Amino acid sequence: MLHTYPLTIPANTLADTPVEEEIHLTHGVITHVEVEFHPGCNGMVKGYVRDGLHQLFPTNPDGKYYTDGGVISWSEYHELFKSPYKLTIGGYSPGTSYDHEIIFRFEVTPREVAERGLTQDTVLANLLKLLGVRR
After folding, report:
1. Which residue segment(s) compose the domain that 88 sits in?
2. Is 49 inside any structural domain?
3. What number of other Cβ atoms are within 10 A of residue 70's Cβ?
């Protein structure tokens, strides 16, 4: 299931007072994440995802996502097996003159399907190693 959450960040929102919103997902595994920034952000609008007090994405606590008119996306394997299935999306935009929106997308897959994908990836990686294509 694909979950999409827009987050509007008012102009000149400071890092010490970010806009945050609690989002509700479903039981399963987050297998893909996207963070979309509209053109005009000029790298000044920052976004992140937390699980409780722990910054989940990006994984380095001081890191934030930012770009100008692009989508940052990656494959993931983050289990959501304990209720409630909540995360917090957040962002800030110091020095900006306009409101901006970041769109967060999370693909949540049932455990059995996500694990099957991991097994297939492992089998393919091992086959490529045997053929000398990968180390």
Report:
1. 2-110
2. yes
3. 14
